[in-house]
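STRUCTURE:
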């Protein structure tokens, strides 16, 4: 039973470490996208195809 407590404690510590690493990466701007907004106007919107009306 004590093994479960040890594994639970280790998994919580690892999860906290990953969360802290994620927060640091976000604050350093690693996930900022500075490229896409400048080329967004070059991509054309896809045309919406209308379904043909059925004639009886």
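SEQUENCE:
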């Amino acid at each position: 039973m004590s093994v479960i407590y040890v594994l639970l404690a280790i998994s919580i510590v690892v999860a906290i470490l990953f969360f802290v690493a994620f927060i640091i990466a976000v604050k350093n701007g690693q996930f900022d996208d500075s490229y896409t907004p400048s080329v967004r106007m070059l991509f054309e919107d896809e045309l919406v195809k209308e379904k043909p009306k059925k004639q009886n």
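REMARK: Residues 2-45 form one domain.
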